[in-house]
Specification:
4 domains, five-stranded antiparallel sheet, 6 helices
C-alpha cells in the first residue's frame, strides 16, 4: 500500500473523530444513546474507505452542528410558596336562633357544579340535650358530649338549612355549638363554623338595680352634701357671733372706764369729743364637735372611695391567664371548644375533638382545628409546638406522620400560611392508655404565648 494512501486513511479517521467530539456536547443530555450511535457507525465507514475518498480537514471541521436547546430556568430551593388553601366545595355557616330557648341554624351550601354527599356534625354544649332537630338528624350522647349528625346529599349549587333546639341550661349562660361538614365517610372536613347563643336581653324594668350604698355616684353625692352642710354650719355660726357682738344696744363690757355720753345739741364744739372706746369682744370659734364630725366624714369618704376602687381592680384580675412577661410574646387566651381564640399571629378555633372510646394503649385523638392568619405577612407554624395535655400533667405533640395521613398525604406544616388565609384541618395526637386530653395548646411560634382550649 502506498504511503500516501495510508496517510490519507489515517487523516480521515482522525478528522472523523474530531467531528464526533465536537458534536457530542451539543447533543441533548436526555438521550445519551444517540451520542454513541454516530461513533459506532463511523468506524466501519472509516475502515472500508477507498483511496479515492479524501475528505479534507476543512470540510469536516466546518460542518454545521445542531443548536443546543436552552436550559430550563433554575428555581432557588429557598423560595417557598405559602399555603392559601383551596376553596372548599362545601361551606358551613352557623347562626344562633332568636328564641327564648337555645337554638341554632346551620346552613350547608354546595358551591360546586356536581352533587355531593356529606356528613354534618354539630357539637352540643356540655350539660344540654337536643329537644328538636331537623328530620334526618340523629343525636348521639357520649360520656363527655352530645353530637347531632346528618347524612346529606347536596344538589349542585344548593343550600340546605338545618335547625336544632336545646334544653336551657343555667339562665343567662352563653352556649357555643360548632358545626362541621365532612366527606361522606367523615374522615376529611370540608368547612366548619361556630356560633354562640346568648339568650334574649332582659327588659330594663326587670333589671335588678344595685343597692344605693354600692353606687359610687350616690356615695359621692352624699359626701358632697355632708361637706356642704358642715361648711354652711361653720359659716352660719361665725356670722351669728359677729352680728350679736356689733348690735347698737349691746352693753359695754365691764371694766370700761371714761366712757362719755355724746352731746345732744347740734352745735359744734371747739374741742373734739372724746371717742367712745370700742367694745372688746372675744372671737368665737366653731364648736369642737362640728370640726371633729366634718373631719371624720371626710376621712370616711376617702377610705370608702379607695376601698371601692381597690375592690373593682381586684375583681377585674383574671387569675386563669398565664403571665405575659419574660420570653413570651403576645397575650395568651383560654377558651372552650367552638370559641375562636387569637394570639399574636394566628387565630385558632377547635371545632371537635374525638378520641377512641375503647381503652386501648396507643390511641389517637383527632382534633378538627381552624387556623387563620390575622397578620399581613405569611406565618410559619410547627407541629411540635401544638400540644395536648393529659390529666396527669404530661403532654404530647402532634403526631406529624398520622396528621399527614389524615390530610391525604399533605404536610400541613411544611409551608407557611399566606396572609389572611384560613385552613380547616385535622390534627392527630397519639396518647398512651385511655387518658383523654384535658386541654390543647396551640401556638404559632416558639416564643408565642399561644392559646389554650379546654376539652370537655
Amino acid at each position: 500500500m502506498p504511503a500516501t494512501t495510508r496517510h490519507h486513511r489515517a487523516l480521515a479517521v482522525f478528522v472523523h473523530c474530531l467531528g464526533i467530539l465536537a458534536a457530542v456536547p451539543a447533543l441533548p443530555t436526555a438521550a445519551p444513546e444517540a451520542a454513541a450511535t454516530p461513533a459506532a457507525a463511523v468506524r466501519p465507514a472509516a475502515a472500508v474507505a477507498t483511496p479515492t475518498e479524501t475528505p479534507t480537514p476543512t470540510d469536516s471541521a466546518t460542518a454545521p452542528t445542531p443548536a443546543a436547546p436552552a436550559p430550563p430556568p433554575l428555581v432557588s430551593p429557598s423560595v417557598v410558596v405559602p399555603t392559601r388553601g383551596a376553596p372548599s366545595p362545601v361551606t358551613v355557616a352557623v347562626a344562633p336562633a332568636g328564641t327564648p330557648a337555645p337554638g341554632y341554624q346551620v346552613q350547608v351550601r354546595n358551591t360546586g357544579s356536581l352533587p355531593l354527599a356529606t356528613t354534618v356534625r354539630q357539637e352540643l354544649p356540655v350539660g344540654t340535650s337536643a329537644t328538636w332537630i331537623t328530620p334526618g338528624g340523629r343525636a348521639t350522647r357520649s360520656a363527655t358530649s352530645t353530637e347531632v349528625t346528618w347524612q346529606l346529599n347536596l344538589p349542585a349549587r344548593s343550600t340546605t338549612t338545618l335547625h336544632t333546639a336545646l334544653t336551657a341550661a343555667a339562665p343567662g349562660r352563653p352556649l357555643t355549638a360548632p358545626a362541621c361538614a365532612f366527606t361522606s365517610d367523615g374522615s376529611r372536613p370540608y368547612d366548619c363554623a361556630t356560633a354562640t347563643w346568648s339568650g334574649l336581653a332582659v327588659p330594663a324594668a326587670q333589671a335588678t338595680a344595685a343597692p344605693p350604698w354600692r353606687r359610687p355616684p350616690v356615695l359621692l353625692a352624699a359626701l358632697a352634701v355632708v361637706l356642704l352642710a358642715g361648711l354652711g354650719g361653720v359659716w352660719w355660726w361665725q356670722r351669728h357671733a359677729r352680728s350679736g357682738a356689733g348690735r347698737p344696744g349691746a352693753a359695754a363690757p365691764a371694766g370700761t372706764v371714761g366712757a362719755t355720753v355724746p352731746a345732744t345739741d347740734d352745735r359744734g364744739t371747739v374741742y373734739p369729743r372724746p371717742a367712745t372706746p370700742a367694745a372688746v369682744t372675744r372671737r368665737r370659734r366653731p364648736p369642737v364637735w362640728l370640726l371633729v364630725g366634718a373631719a371624720l366624714v371626710l376621712l370616711a369618704g376617702v377610705v370608702l372611695a379607695a376601698t371601692l376602687t381597690a375592690t373593682r381592680r381586684v375583681a377585674a384580675i383574671d387569675t386563669a391567664k398565664q403571665p405575659t412577661s419574660g420570653a413570651w410574646v403576645g397575650r395568651s387566651a383560654t377558651g372552650v371548644v367552638g370559641v375562636p381564640l387569637r394570639e399574636q399571629a394566628l387565630e385558632f378555633t377547635v371545632y371537635r375533638v374525638v378520641c377512641p372510646n375503647a381503652p386501648l394503649a396507643g390511641g389517637q385523638c383527632q382534633a378538627t382545628v381552624g387556623v387563620r392568619n390575622v397578620t399581613p405577612q405569611q406565618q410559619t407554624w410547627h407541629g411540635q409546638m401544638q400540644r395536648a395535655y393529659l390529666p396527669g400533667g404530661t403532654w404530647v405533640s402532634t403526631d406529624e406522620t398520622a396528621t399527614r395521613l389524615a390530610n391525604q398525604g399533605r404536610d400541613v406544616f411544611a409551608q407557611p400560611l399566606a396572609a389572611g388565609s384560613r385552613l380547616v384541618l385535622p390534627l392527630v395526637f397519639t396518647v398512651d392508655g385511655p387518658a383523654r386530653p384535658k386541654q390543647l395548646e396551640l401556638r404559632s411560634g416558639v416564643f408565642s404565648a399561644g392559646v389554650r382550649v379546654d376539652v370537655p
